[in-house]
Amino acid sequence: MAESVEILQQIIKQYGQKRELSPGDVLIRQGAMSDGVYYLKTGLLGVYREEDGQLFQLSSIEPGTTVGELGAITGRARTATVKATEDSTVLYVSTEDFNHALEGAPSLAAEIVCTMTDRLTNSDSIRINLGQSYHQAVDRVESLCTEKKRLEELLRLREELADMIVHDLRNPLGVIFSGLELLNRSEFVEEDREYCQSVLAAMTRSVTRMRYLVDTLLDIARLEEGVFAFQRKPISLTDLIEETVAEERHLATRSKIILILDVAPDLPSIQADRHVVQRVLTNLLDNALKFTPGGGRVQVAAKQEGDRAFVTIADTGPGIPPEERTRIFEKFTQVQGNVGRHRGSGLGLTFCQLAIEAHDGRIWVEDGPNGQGSQFIFTLPLSHEG
Questions:
Q1: Multiple choice CATH, 232-381, 3.60.21.10, 3.30.365.10, 3.30.565.10, 1.10.8.50
Q2: How far apart are CA 278 and CA 118, in angstroms?
Q3: Residues in the chain with pLDDT < 70?
Q4: What is the rounded CA–CA span in Å between residue 382 and residue 386?
């Protein structure tokens, strides 16, 4: 071994021609015929295999290593590409000089064969490891695909169950509601009248809430499927906002909240479903009033920017953390730590987002004025009819 190294160093010293390489310079090209042997003096080289136009790194060559011996001996084409990964210096010995030197150094030839055998053995080990990793990756992908299909099936079953529950609840709720209306018109014995009417009122409120929840779930499902039947026409956004605020003002007064209306003059009309947009306004205004403490303020503002109307509902409540501002538009989501005057269904904001986006608008939430509270903003395209 020591003798072979010494002989190789003598060959390089006698025949070696110095070459300087910059990062990325190709020293040996895969498929090219062998032109000689290279000895890396300084720097670092990478060995690459080219497949389908892509290079895959196989190994690195460090200083003191010889490369290209097998090609020089056999005269075969290069089996890999070698290029510099940093500034490098190599000593080049031509095939003719190298083979001439080998004729007088059989021990060096034997050492080269042993070195090639070790490299091939190492290459086989790498291939075995790669094969094992590949099969493990395939098994993992198949497992993930199976898990994905399972989750998709669970999601589909959940949606089917929700649809079934909603539809199955709707009819009996309608019957109960009709029965309550009939009872409300009935005559009671005088001493039982007040009690019966209070019970009926509580039942009516509960059924009304359940009916609203079921209808909202159905509307959300239709919006998600793109089959919601909109009645679009030019409407006055100013009138709609003023009407909605007027309906909610009694709640603000009862909760000792200052309700402010700020609509820009001459706001153009919008092309929209009046009932749907009013539901959006009512949902957002209800939320603002629910989470604003007594003595606080809620402001409803509207203005034109370009070809869109911008509507803002701002409050002085606890605000919504940035990490929650996307999640709150998901079904059945409640903001952690925020407690309003009554618990909501977690569906109102989902409906708002789907309804606004179906009108080619956007809706989002950000900090309220001066960083206090929160403000919901939605946009709607203005009507071309003015």
A1: 3.30.565.10
A2: 79
A3: 1-8, 70-75, 102-135, 137-138, 141, 153-192, 336-345, 384-386
A4: 8
